Amino acid sequence: MVKSLPLAFALAVDAMGGDNSPDMVLDGLEIAAERHPQAKFLVVGDEARLVPLLAVRPRALKACTVRHAPDVVPGDMKPTLALRVRRSSMRLAIDSVAAGEAAGVVSAGNTGALMALAKIVVKTLPDINRPALAAIMPSARGDVVMLDLGANVACDARNLVEFAIMGDAFARAVLGLPQPSIGLLNVGSEDMKGDDRVRQAAEVLRESHIASGFHGFIEGHDITAGTVDVVVTDGFTGNVALKTGEGALKLMRDMLRQVFSSSLSAKMGYLLARPALERLREWMDPRRYNGAILLGLNGVVVKSHGGTDATGFAHAIDVAMDMVTHGFNDRIHEGLARLSMPQPDLTSART
Amino acid sequence: MVKSLPLAFALAVDAMGGDNSPDMVLDGLEIAAERHPQAKFLVVGDEARLVPLLAVRPRALKACTVRHAPDVVPGDMKPTLALRVRRSSMRLAIDSVAAGEAAGVVSAGNTGALMALAKIVVKTLPDINRPALAAIMPSARGDVVMLDLGANVACDARNLVEFAIMGDAFARAVLGLPQPSIGLLNVGSEDMKGDDRVRQAAEVLRESHIASGFHGFIEGHDITAGTVDVVVTDGFTGNVALKTGEGALKLMRDMLRQVFSSSLSAKMGYLLARPALERLREWMDPRRYNGAILLGLNGVVVKSHGGTDATGFAHAIDVAMDMVTHGFNDRIHEGLARLSMPQPDLTSART
Predict the structure, then answer these.
(1) DSSP symbol at B297
(2) B222 and chain A: CB distance < 8 Å anywhere?
(3) Which CATH class, in words, describes the domain spanning A1-123?
(4) Across the interface, do B237 and A242 touch by the CB < 8 Å criterion?
């Protein structure tokens, strides 16, 4: 459960993760400090580098306390090895959550390492078998939460049900929806479709306390159509679907760029339509959706894209702050307590 | 194996499948008859409806022979029930392939029923455990083949290896690539990523006769980036990825439509850029990519989208004609004969 505020720090921030750290992280904190003037941040990393960088960022300087970490978890390090690096910036940031100093942590570093460390150090909520990675993404009808995005490549029916409960709590707390609709990703919308795993999870959800919000099976195209507020799937499918959708949008953007430079009249057309196209670009800006959330832990853990910039990193901090201030984990806890579900059936695991 | 041409008919066509059948199908045949002037088609369906419709389509009339089928497989009928409808247009069209009258069949009807009927009536190639559903799709670097798109929701490593071999043969025969590159869809590109199933399949492929074309693991965004020519995955993931990508493109198209009607200057911009935008629209036209292919059978079986129009249906016929004339199944057969692989390991099935 999230410790009752005020803690010493709202969030701990891993200053050394991501492609352009620590500069990008501190620029992000400079933005975040303005947006969250009451919040205090614990910034963890190489003190000798951080102190002079903070000195020239007045808002961040005021909001941040530096904690020295001599080591860094490299982006390509295996999670099992990362667990042994006891004095990395990522580890010490996560440690501060477990120690009750900060309510959550944000890192743009190695995803696998962050998940492994968070599970072991921060630990899962009671009744949660496996944490899940969630993100908010745009759809034709507003923001959609999707999970799992890759924390669990093999999931059984019980895991999927837990993801639905966590997604429901997340949509209530962070998106502010009074009754989120929840869909289970499948190869068709009819009840008979899919494998035992998804059919069994659907049966349990139809009998659960979130039954009134359970929409049933959805298909890939329902994600961007906004058919539901919460898309539930296993980590393998979710990871592939997320990246496939991003890839399709990138293809379209690249083709449009070619189109608008293909002739003089197309270039003029671009100039005329530019203000409207810019609004579209802002709406789809991946930085607006930066910040994947590891759900199901005794604390808020948010993963920023490694390749993001200060704007994107500041958004990841926004997501974490939202979860901290809305008592998100308490809601998950309530949701699970109300769930009556048979014991985990491991025979239907998709391994 | 495809029976040596000439057979009585190049293709049998299910005239009654799809949303706007039989008119849409016959309009498609009118286009196809012009493109394939040597081909004879067996058109199966309600004779009383088909004969007058053909009478007003002169090219189709010349190329087609009508065979009466009193029944139709409804779009929502379960495959197990569809197997019992012995005189449906779909069944009689497939029967003609098994009987050696036609080299292949095209239907816009019930996908599950088509797959079930094709497996039982046309039968799988020797050494193929499970047929797969494949399609061609656009990428930044040209056309890409992806399989399985939903024929098998649970796949083991052996199935994935078979899909790779079939995809390789397909890319050689239909896309005309001398050495297609093949990628296995996963949650990351590093060797350690994913589950046992994909890691085991990758190991076998690295030692196989298509090892030189095997690119290794790819991620969702690699599909539209065109990183490889052939994308191999299980039917659950492939189905979701395909529909997610389509959904993302549809979202972008809808947003662009809004953008270009949002102001007078945006409307003028659209008019100026229109010729270039039209080329993009043609390039991405889903009708150009209509026609999913059921690979691994003793005959060519192509599924058209149910909601397509005559142009799309004609394209599905093109795909089937390509496979018939390029002796595609002979190539799969050769590929499998060269494969040395351990017996199917069912412990790694993803059920």
Answers:
(1) B
(2) yes
(3) alpha beta
(4) no
